[in-house]
Amino acid sequence: MDRPSAVERALREAAPHEIFDVIRFTIEHRHHALTVDLLLVDYAMTRLQPVGVLPHTRPSVSVHDSAPGRAFGAQEAHCVYDRSASTAAVHLPVSVRGDRLGVLGVTLPVSQDEELDAAVLEDLQECADALAHEVVVAERDTDVFLQARRAERLTLAAEMQWQLLPGRSCARPEYSLGAQLEPAYAIFGDCFDWSASADDLYVTVSNGMGEGIDAALLTNLAINALRNARRAGLSLSDQASLADQAVYGQHGGTRYLSTLLFRFHLPTGGVEIIDAGSPRVWRLREGTVEPIELEAQMPLGMFEDTAYVPQRFKVEPGDRLLFISDGVYDALSPGGERYSLRALAASISNTRLLPAPQVPRVMLQELLGHRGSGPAADDSLVMCLDWHGRSVDGDR
């Protein structure tokens, strides 16, 4: 059995708020680094925010047009040489199991014509990977990293919603997932959830009614009821029924939640789905964009003792699925023009070459271009799933 590296041991032994200080000291000691910075992507996924003691931190940088942003988008190390200063700035992705957290920036001294050794880059990436794992764990016990992610103050409802989410992207050999909510700092009731086991991937996309705290409380109740049923080993139908009863028992049908529930069977690509409301599904297969027509059933909590029946279809390797809330479809331009299905299909097609974690952000940016800079009437959710499938020999 491989033993933890010295870096991993040092990170595990450090206090949660000190793990970045530990990795900075380690890199400075090992590689004589001039600077070491950790930048975390903000909730809107447009800025990379430096970790430091607020408010005394360095300015944030753009995800779209900066050297750290290039490393974040490509998910690989990016080096920038300054020959006049005899330095090299290395930007390394900080990610864990496909969840993109940010970028580790390291400035190293180099001679005039020197290129960084591959072994140095490999060691720095291992440090970034170890740091990523510890940041996820440390967030249970410190606010340092959560504070660094916000470019502005979250509303209380948005705080509740972001704490409910599993992450914003994840990956396994069989699939890659990415999702985003907007407006990121003032979301209401839209939510997503996922969980995977050896042979199953469960995905939930929800659109709760109402605004502010009421919407966030409703979504929290439903999502935790679904998780409770899933963790008890119940079928997809029973998961929907338990959440339906929980919401109806609390609100008596006056409040309800539109939800899509999926179970993907990883070995075969078979899918069970329950369409309990308004979020919709689109498929991109071999260049063709088309909606997946489903039999709509009652939203969770609308009536007492609703029986839910799953539908079935199959995904093929190379398929891309998009799960989209009604805040996208119903978005209006300043002139009152609704965002059309044709525009949505074009957006799906235009982003076909991007990896799944980048697609939701780009699609929502296009939506913002249609809607304009004014306040949104509703929040919007886009989730993208790329299906790779399991290899014939069962390797994962």
From TrEMBL:
UniProtKB keywords: Hydrolase
GO molecular function terms listed in the Swiss-Prot or TrEMBL record: phosphatase activity
Keyword Hydrolase (UniProt): yes
InterPro entries: Bact_Sigma-Reg, PPM-type-like_dom_sf, PPM-type_phosphatase-like_dom
Record's keyword annotation contains Repeat: no
Residues covered by the PPM-type phosphatase domain: 174-387
Protein name: Serine/threonine-protein phosphatase
Organism: Streptomyces arboris
Lineage: Bacteria, Bacillati, Actinomycetota, Actinomycetes, Kitasatosporales
